[in-house]
Amino acid sequence: MSRGKRPKWMIDIAIERMNILFERAEMEFITHPERSHRYVELARKLSTKYNTKIPQKWSRRYCKKCGRFLYYGHNSSVRLVDEKVNIFCGECGHVMRIPYSKEKKNKRRAKYESIKKRNDE
């Protein structure tokens, strides 16, 4: 094991704990938003301590600028603008822009292949 590296079992436990913290943040947001923000803060600390990424399922559910948990429809909004998903944080006003051109390309390709398949039959 090299210097600064954690064993695999430690990283797995950290990822599992991050998942639990984000699930709790989602459940608690309506009644206790401060608590859910604290859960996100703890999950981010875990990711830095164990040098792991936050699972992709949850990486878009918190603001990268202010660190708040984003509950769509309450303190954030999602818009599709020019082949990008814009996630607007209602707390600090930060906008996360995520491209979705690959998804559109795959959808177009699937549509083309289904039409081609129908014509071949």
Descriptive account of the structure:
- The chain has helices at 8-28, 33-49, 56-59, 101-120; strands at residues 76-81, 84-89, 95-99.
- It has 121 residues and is of the alpha+beta class.
- It has a three-stranded antiparallel sheet with strand order 1-2-3, with no helix packed on it.
- β1 and β2 form a beta hairpin.
- α1 runs antiparallel to α2 (33-49).
- The chain is extended, with a radius of gyration of 19 Å.
- The termini are far apart.
- The mean pLDDT is 90.
The helix/strand order is HHHEEEH
Distance between the amino and carboxyl termini: 58 Å
Structural class: alpha+beta
| Radius of gyration of CA atoms, rounded to a whole number | 19 Å
How many β-strand runs? 3
Helical residues, percent: 40-55%
Trace the largest sheet across and list its strands.
Answer: 1-2-3
Helix count from the secondary structure assignment: 4
Low-confidence stretches: none
Largest beta sheet, briefly? 3 strands, antiparallel
The percentage of residues in β strands lies in: 5-15%
Mean pLDDT comes to 90
Principal-axis shape: extended
